[in-house]
Amino acid sequence: MIYSPIDIHNINELISILVKEDFVFYLPDDNVFAPTYIETQLKSVQ
Description:
This protein is mainly alpha-helical. The protein has one domain. The protein has 2 helices and no strands.
């Protein structure tokens, strides 16, 4: 467990707050991205 004074208990939540980017993609150990996954996701939100 991650100790957080601002009530964040998940590393992905913490990373999302600390990163200064418009989009953050996570790749868990048990998953893979298809070759065009990120491109497809970005097109769907623009």
